[in-house]
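re: the backbone from monday

yeah here it is again, tokenized this time
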């Protein structure tokens, strides 16, 4: 209740306005970070003093119409309506005001390009591109490219929402990097809502608290994947570990050239097979099973080894940690429709350079406008398709195909296995949280634990103490259910 309009995990059709509507227009929403003349970064919403002056009335908040006004239907009218000549109708009723309303927008209103060309031209990404590109998309609407963009909280390395929270309720867990909201600490200032450039923090108007995707942390703590990953029918989602240099995050986010932010973020990701990295990780107390999981991490391979997964809008300088493999399907479809072989390496490489509209659009999404980065990714995916087609058809493999994109036959085959036929344990490499101090489960421990050391302790009715515990009540029950079923 109070979050009927919120979608922690939504899938958008691109081109399109997204959800909330035009959330990528940071000139309006003022989300993310900006670099100052001095070379430092600050929140796009303004300085601390400026934000403090507007703390009681945040002028950068999106309107409910940018999301949509949640509604229900008068279902009771279908049952209780008196006999008559007309069939009773369940009319829409606002969940905010309780009054009848006209439905004009929702989270999936323009899915599958359903909004028509007049909505396409409102896409903030298209508006950033040249007028020639936008005109092509608008005039050839029925022939334009389309793909789906699933979005959850990015759990950034440099989260703007955490920095913007006046009460310190938003925090990034040191043990796994998940960004969460302390519901007891939250005072409903809503600065985090406007500061998040991806608009993945929502305000619960019933409780007066901020809420967001929790990355299903109780499941992750016992080695289970998130619900959105495990239920993905297309097996498109991967989960794994990154080892990164936390001391260099600020410097990487402060780089002047926006197009260099992607490479700067890649430089933060450390090689889990490097002996020096392993030694430093052990010195920091990272367990051996976590280091092994980092070495087998599928997301590390996709992002750093093969370099085919890209971050969403790196120009926001939040260092997002949800990575995307750009779609190749628009290019293959166009080649096939024109009578060419859509799987031939030469045709694909040529088409990638020729089809400037989808390439420029993808670059604005995933590489701050750097077309070469997206082009390199698509070339690798094209090479993999052509190389594996020869193998599947019983032809002699052509080593020149992977060599053309800077890969070996072995690496391109391993990339194919990870993308196409990876097993469950290959897609989800999640080490369990360490529970050496399981006695601190707060539904099992004494509420006076820690009183001698001056620490806070739980209340008489099971209230949380506020101290971090290595094992949560939620994952205790999940583990118990798995063992008894």
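seq for it, each position gets an aa:
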């Amino acid at each position: 209740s109070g979050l009927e309009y919120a979608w922690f995990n939504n899938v958008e059709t691109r081109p399109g306005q997204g959800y909330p509507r035009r959330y990528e227009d940071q000139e309006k929403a003022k989300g993310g970070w900006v670099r100052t003349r001095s070379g430092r970064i600050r929140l796009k919403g303004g300085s601390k003093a400026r934000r403090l002056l507007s703390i009681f009335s945040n002028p950068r908040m999106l309107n409910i119409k940018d999301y949509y006004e949640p509604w229900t239907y008068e279902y009771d009218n279908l049952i209780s309506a008196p006999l008559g000549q007309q069939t009773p109708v369940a009319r829409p009723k606002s969940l905010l005001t309780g009054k009848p309303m006209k439905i004009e927008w929702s989270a999936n209103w323009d899915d599958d390009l359903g909004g028509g060309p007049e909505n396409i031209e409102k896409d903030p990404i298209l508006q950033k591109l040249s007028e020639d590109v936008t005109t092509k998309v608008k005039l050839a609407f029925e022939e334009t490219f389309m793909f789906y963009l699933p979005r959850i909280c990015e759990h950034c390395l440099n989260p703007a929402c955490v920095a913007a929270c006046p009460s310190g309720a938003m925090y990034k867990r040191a043990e796994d990097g998940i960004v969460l909201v302390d519901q007891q600490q939250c005072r409903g200032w809503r600065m985090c809502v406007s500061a998040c450039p991806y608009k993945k923090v929502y305000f619960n108007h019933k409780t007066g608290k901020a809420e967001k995707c929790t990355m299903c942390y109780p499941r992750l703590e016992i080695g289970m994947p998130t619900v959105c990953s495990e239920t993905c029918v297309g097996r498109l989602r991967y989960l794994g570990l990154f080892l990164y240099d936390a001391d260099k995050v600020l410097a990487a986010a402060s780089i002047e050239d926006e197009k260099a932010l992607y490479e700067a973020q890649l430089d933060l990701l450390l090689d889990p097979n490097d002996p020096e990295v392993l030694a430093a990780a052990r010195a920091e107390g990272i367990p051996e099973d976590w280091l092994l999981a980092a070495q087998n991490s599928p997301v590390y391979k996709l992002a750093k080894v093969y370099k085919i997964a890209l971050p969403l809008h790196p120009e926001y300088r939040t260092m997002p940690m949800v990575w995307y493999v750009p779609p190749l399907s628009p290019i293959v479809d166009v080649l096939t429709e024109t009578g060419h072989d859509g799987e031939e390496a030469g045709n694909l490489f040529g088409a990638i350079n020729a089809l400037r509209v989808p390439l420029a659009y993808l670059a604005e999404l995933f590489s701050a406008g750097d077309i070469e980065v997206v082009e390199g990714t698509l070339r690798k995916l094209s090479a993999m398709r052509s190389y594996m087609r020869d193998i599947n058809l019983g032809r002699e493999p052509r080593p020149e195909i992977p060599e053309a994109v800077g890969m070996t036959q072995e690496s391109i085959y391993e990339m194919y296995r990870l993308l196409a036929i990876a097993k469950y344990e290959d897609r989800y490499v999640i080490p369990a949280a360490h529970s050496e101090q399981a006695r601190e489960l707060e539904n099992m421990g004494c509420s006076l634990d820690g009183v001698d050391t001056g620490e806070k302790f739980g209340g008489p009715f099971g209230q949380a103490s506020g101290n971090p515990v290595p094992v949560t009540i939620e994952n205790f029950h999940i583990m118990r259910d798995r063992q008894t079923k």
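Residues 326-420 form a domain with the nitrate reductase domain fold fold (CATH 1.10.3650). The first strand starts at residue 10 and ends at 14.
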